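QA checklist item 7 of 12: single-chain prediction sanity check.
[x] sequence parsed
[x] length recorded as 444
[x] structure emitted
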Amino acid sequence: MSKRRQFLSLASAALVGSMMLGGCMGTPPDKGGGAADTSAPSATADKGLETKTINLGFVPILEAAPLVVAVEKGYFAKHGLDVNLTKQASWPAARDNVVLGSKGGGIDGGQWQLPMPQMISEGAITDGKKVPMYILAMLMSQGNGIAASNNIKGANLTVDLKKSAGFFSDFSKKEGRKFRAAYTFPKANQDIWIRYWLAAGGIDPDKEVELLTVPSTETLQGMRNGTMEAFSTGDPWPSRIVKDDIGYLPAITAQIWKSHPEEYLAVRADWVDKNPKATIALIKGLIEAQQWMDKAENRSEVAKILSSRKWYNTPVAVLEESIKGQYLIGADRKPETDPAMGPLYWDSDRGVISYPYKSLTLWFLVESLRWKFYPGTVDTIAQAKAINDKVTREDLWIQAAKELGLPAAQIPTSSSRGKETFFDGVVYDPENPQAYLDSQKIKK
């Protein structure tokens, strides 16, 4: 038998064997570990994309859930995009990987705390190396909390720290050191939330508290061994601290600012500029995933998908409570079961969550001004606005939404969501950010 005929014979036998094996084994399970999901969107891939692949990074907290769901439920694939979504060891690792880019073995973008994309663009957190990025969509609202150790359970801290006047100074006198509060990355979302909480209660976070950076995966152990008294991070970590009876929840961020901006999808500008059609496909897949997972009847399935070792490696029960907004608030563990206080992925009383309002992405830069996070980069409101206008791409979201055929009522017509009011009565008017800054009694 000639070599060619021998090869064809072997190939034919392998194909038949494969078909028989497939028939014996049946339909394989989906990536989430359950039975194949016949409700997943069919592949109606948009033809003519400049590329079919993108490498994105994520950190295993609820903000990343829309990216995971869009991969697992086939929403990205529906629009012709193969998204390689990889877990990042930490926020610094994600930052370093996006500087490398996929060509250098890193990532093209992914999930970010703000103002990380703006500051990566300016080189402020990348040792001066400027890597322009675009913010494409908000991933989630709310879903974050401030947990406190059981060691200070007697203080019964709440969202309003004015009710605990004297606690922090008394703590320092008793322990011989400052109260320690932690977050996962400095000068970004979770640092800002704990600073706002403390300052609203009359506590200067730069003078009366020791602030620490601790990776989210070290949260539980850190709280157990007394590394910190409080921790600001995204769920499921705060809920897990309560579930494991390591601590309690003085506050959730929904109490601080209802329907607040949280983390965002941002991608390197060079990737977006080179692949405009693929970028729109990416946003389309994300939007559809957010719409699907925001429905109450789908939340249990979301928890099951996220729980796998590949994604969050967290018990389904913990994730299900977090994703449904079922909290136990305070030292007395008062139940909070209103879904509107939990994670929001699409709809809210302030409109569509996914839309990257410039008024909201600007707020993180205004807070950076308040605490003098980035001297030489963000020193004025004018600088903040200029940076924000370069990075936040509302136009791309609008194009994706229109191509999806979203109702006009779901496509914002303004870059501002209007005035925002915090739990302490402070108002942020995007038309006058300086007035917001001036109204803050505690700042640097």
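[x] summary fact logged: The longest strand covers residues 53-58.
[ ] second reviewer sign-off
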